[in-house]
Amino acid sequence: MRQVKDKTRIVITGVGLAAPNGDNMAEFRSALLDGESGIGMFDTRYMPPVPAGVCKFDQYRHQTKKEARRGTRAGSISIYCANEAVEDAGVDLDEADRSRVGVFIGITEHGNVETENEVYNLAQYDNDVKFWTHHHNPRTVANNPAGEVTLNLNITGPHLCLGAACAAGNIGLIYGSQMLTLGEVDMAMAGGVSESIHTFGIFASFNSQNALAMHDDPTKASRPFDIDRNGIVVSEGGCVYILERLDDALARGARIYAEIAGYAHNSDATDFVLPNPATQAACMRLALERAGMKPEQVDIINTHGTGTGQGDQQECMAIRDVFTGDKKPYVNNTKSLIGHTMGAAGALELAGNIPSFDDGQVHPTINLDNIDPECNLENFVIDKPAHAGHVESIMNNSFGMLGINSVVIAKRFVS
Amino acid sequence: MTGEGIRQAIIEIIKEIVPDEDLSGIDPEKPLRDQIDLDSMDFLDIVMELRKKYRVEVQEKDYGELATMNSTINYLLPKMESL
Hints:
The complex is a heterodimer of chains A (415) and B (83).
Chain A: E1 10-18, H1 25-33, E2 39-42, E3 50-53, H2 65-70, H3 73-89, E4 101-107, H4 112-123, H5 136-140, H6 144-153, E5 159-163, H7 168-182, E6 187-194, H8 200-208, E7 234-235, E8 237-245, H9 246-251, E9 258-267, H10 277-291, E10 300-302, H11 309-322, E11 330-332, H12 335-338, H13 345-353, H14 356-359, E12 361-362, E13 386-387, E14 393-400, E15 404-411
Parallel strand pairs in A: 3-7, 4-5, 4-6, 10-11, 10-14
Antiparallel strand pairs in A: 1-8, 1-9, 2-3, 6-8, 9-15, 12-13, 14-15
Helix pairs in contact in A: 3-6, 7-13, 10-11
Chain B: H1 3-17, H2 32-35, H3 40-54, H4 69-80
């Protein structure tokens, strides 16, 4: 990927997002710089209320009530984000060849929400399956969120969802970039979504794993790298980027947010849930190599850190292993503010940091009151934004269960 | 339930299925699908809601009976008049 030509340089020209503390890039960035948490208490079935992040975007801004009723929450989040991204990119789809547009949405999982609700509803009818909805299959097929976008925007190019646990947002970006590089599409709507908070199962499973965050004040529940962290805050969210090859973006005079400088995706092959710092470090190194960059050239690392004991420590171990030089990058953690948006996390957290190229600031990590000595990286940005001045590059880490690792490096666009 | 009661029940069901549609001017003699945006999955929703709300079964061979509002009322009257 070094010395690539304009045809194979991939740039971000539009962003649409839904976060618990913002419905667009400007609101989201402002909340992150202000250290404003998006976490509140949330009612879920069979359990006491749990801390969680809920998106507040206007669901009917880009889809009809009928579409929303027919589809899924993940579909609605995807449709909102995709439409916002198209508007943000200044793309007129009526002028575009819709058969050359692809939709690639990362998901942690899909179908659990619909299945759980149907099983619950069926119990109200003595489990007589003639009351099971005919919408079950189209709602739960794994391509549902991306497919709903194609229906809403009448896009006839390829679409699919990429199941990649909590690395999925980055993986959506990576796959979209690859499809552009291959020439399979001329424009990619790529990112990730999660609607997981609408099933009790995700909370109950983390609870049984002793990995569900609890705190009297929900805004303090998500505290990655803090000595008093006690688990994950699950949130919903979404982020879809418009990706284009550089020559196409330049030809239409698009505003360019950033360039995808490099990426990597590998596997631990060690455990269902526990991470592996050696393969995480290998993933960071591979992304740097493909970007043609040295660790010293990274200005900001957005950490994956979720608030689990071992996970946070091992990511720090991997970062120390890679960043051995004298110049240490700024380090922050977006999950401390919005919780873990699961399939959206990689894409959404990158969107929270990309404005650094323009405003020269690094958004803070909150709730990092007493840093775990095992997580004590230099240049952690805590409570207040850091004024970095000129930011050239951002490394975005996103890891997931079954040992899936992903790293995306975005850099300031220079023609 | 009277014919008028059935008409109101059907309108309520359709309102839930196609909430964006204006149902005030439906011609009872014309096919529903010519007047409002109802596809085959929506039609199955009507059948499902009749089952859930009124325990009324509409067999597949009888789906054609639900073409217009009046034909729907005529078909459902014997099944729902005792409700």
